[in-house]
Amino acid sequence: MDRDHFARIFGYEDYDAMQENTTTVYKDGQICWNITSLPDNRFITWDNAEIADDRVEVFLTRESALNYLKQLRENILH
């Protein structure tokens, strides 16, 4: 999937605009685990290993998204 198409699915004009609303929470080599604030006030978690809309989780709060990434990271490390 093209990066701009990915961003448009979630309400952004392009990938650069989406990146302005994205925080990288964890980085493992070249892979970044991110939280993005959406225009509709929801949040998504995603990584840049393979950009696709079916590799995204949606949350109502940033805290929930962050907790999800923390749990995911713990599961991967153990």
Structure description:
There is one protein chain. With 78 residues, this protein is of the alpha+beta class. The protein has one domain. The protein is 36% helix and 28% strand. The protein contains 3 helices and 4 strands, in the order H-H-E-E-E-E-H. The protein has helices spanning 3-9, 15-19, 62-77; strands at 22-28, 31-37, 43-47, 57-59. A 4-stranded antiparallel sheet has the order 1-2-3-4, with helices on one face. A hairpin with a 5-residue loop joins strand 2 (31-37) and strand 3 (43-47). The longest helix has 16 residues, at 62-77. It starts with a helix and ends with a helix. The mean pLDDT is 95.
Compact overview of the structure:
By secondary structure, the protein is of the alpha+beta class. The protein has helices at 3-9, 15-19, 62-77; strands at 22-28, 31-37, 43-47, 57-59.
Instruction: Domain count, please report it.
Output: 1
Distance between the termini: 31 Å
Biggest sheet architecture:
4 strands, antiparallel
Mean pLDDT comes to: 95
Say what oligomer this is.
single chain
Global structural class:
alpha+beta
Sequence of strands across the biggest β-sheet = 1-2-3-4
Shape: globular
Percentage of β-strand residues = 25-35%
Count of extended strands = 4
What is the gyration radius calculated from CA atoms? Answer: 12 Å
Helix content: 25-40%
